[in-house]
Design goal:
Number of helices: 18
Shape: globular
Low-confidence stretches: 229-238
Number of domains: 1
Number of strands: 0
Order of helices and strands: HHHHHHHHHHHHHHHHHH
Length: about 425
């Protein structure tokens, strides 16, 4: 190894560790609470559907309509981030979603549920896009999937924590004189209000503002992270709107749609499916649901680190997706019991571990000036998965009286995802980039 190369690797490691400790770990709190406040409706449904008179289709619509607001807010939210800076932007959207989530404890009609779900989606709409853009400015190439994996992993961790917690809160006997599902919404929304204050006081807007980096480390980020993006060969033109003309960009957006379709289908319906198959209490259901999510958190980090070591991205998405889809189908067919539980854990782990390897791709193939719009485009198309798949699963469940057709839908999406990954890998290889 050349002496200069050794110095470069050393400073890259130092910066990577600092970024994980100072920025990535705090970002976990926001993605964790955001995920809980988006998906705890899956547990609320165990009681709320009866109290509000919601059918399976109406519940699926209420779960998915959040993503209408999510999609509508994507571009305005990222533009706001670029205008006022990351710190003010994150504090604003966190406070807005926290207050809207608190109001879910007061709803009396399904119309109020739909309205607040849209508002929560609108407030959170730019969260994932903004975090990917922000951390991408601090992420050396060989650390990129790992750095992006850690906050994404918190989505799975949120289900490990949120599942048992939601079940426990639901089983409480009228705390504060209100139904368990109302109490659950209130308790799980309040931390977001505190996080808004933390965001305002803690985060630097850009590397130049980070007091915990020395001058040489700030210069290294300018010379290497930004230079890597200027060399990206994946665009079809130049300028802010380049991603909209990029075939690889649109293929990436379709891949992200399938990833989110699989993940949100599992998140919103797994509690209902587990309880329907086993007849467990809400607390017991939460503990069972936590297991595949815990496995997904571990699998996500392992998959991301292996992807970083090998430099390969797409097979690290396609293969886990296939194993996950067929694992969930096998778990349903086997039913309650050790075999079904093992496949449920395997299926959940593989379905959830595809995300981080994916986000190392757009930051590599899109030029710096096109990255913000590319991330917005990818996230907008992906968000339609959240709006479409939970209602579709509800309609299939109601029409068939079985959980098999909704599960087959998830398995089919996994197969489509693997196919799109192979197509995109070949497309990027032909363009001269490293897939």
């Amino acid at each position: 190894m050349e002496p200069n190369q050794g110095v470069q690797q050393t400073i890259e490691q130092v910066i990577g560790r600092k970024v994980i400790r100072r920025l990535v770990l705090p970002c976990i709190l926001f993605t964790l609470m955001g995920s809980i406040d988006r998906t705890n409706v899956g547990f609320a449904a165990l009681q709320m559907n009866t109290d509000l008179g919601l059918s399976a289709t109406a519940y699926g619509f209420g779960a998915g309509i959040l993503f209408v607001g999510y999609v509508l807010a994507k571009y305005p939210s990222v533009r706001l981030y670029e205008t006022i800076g990351f710190r003010r932007w994150l504090a604003t959207i966190t406070l807005a979603w926290g207050l809207a989530a608190c109001l879910l404890a007061l709803i009396q009609t399904q119309g109020q549920l739909y309205l607040l779900r849209v508002l929560i989606g609108f407030a959170e709409g730019g969260l994932s896009s903004g975090l990917m853009l922000y951390l991408g400015h601090w992420a050396p190439e060989r650390w990129r999937a790992t750095i992006l994996a850690v906050p994404i992993m918190s989505i799975n961790v949120s289900q490990v924590i949120g599942g048992p917690l939601s079940g426990l809160l639901l089983d409480m006997d009228n705390p504060l004189g209100i139904a368990g599902w109302r109490f659950m919404f209130l308790v799980e929304a309040l931390p977001a209000v505190a996080l808004a204050v933390f965001a305002w006081c803690y985060f630097p807007d850009r590397p130049a503002d980070a007091a915990w980096l020395d001058a040489a480390e700030r210069q290294w980020l300018r010379d290497h992270v930004h230079a890597e993006r200027r060399k990206a060969p994946g665009g079809d033109g130049s300028g802010r709107w380049e991603a909209l003309r990029s075939r690889s960009g649109w293929l990436c957006a379709l891949i992200w749609f399938c990833i989110l379709a699989s993940n949100y289908g599992v998140m919103f319906w797994l509690p209902t499916i587990v309880k329907g198959l086993s007849g467990l209490t809400a607390t017991q259901t939460g503990l069972i649901v936590a297991l595949p999510n815990a496995a997904a958190a571990v699998g996500l980090l392992i998959n991301a680190r292996h992807s970083d070591r090998t430099g390969e991205r797409f097979l690290h998405i396609a293969l886990p997706a296939l194993v996950g889809g067929f694992g969930l189908l096998g778990a349903l067919l086997l039913g309650p019991g050790p075999g079904g539980l093992a496949l449920l854990i395997l299926g959940g782990a593989c379905t959830g571990c595809t995300v981080a390897a994916f986000w190392a791709v757009p930051t590599r193939i899109l030029r710096p000036e096109a990255l913000a719009m590319g991330v917005v485009m990818i996230n907008m198309l992906g968000s339609f998965a959240g709006a479409l798949i939970p209602p579709a699963m509800g309609a299939l469940r109601e029409a068939s009286g079985s959980y098999l057709p909704p599960t087959l839908l998830i398995t089919g999406i996994a197969c489509l995802l693997a196919t799109l990954c192979l197509i995109t890998r070949a497309q990027i290889a032909r363009s001269g980039a490293t897939p």
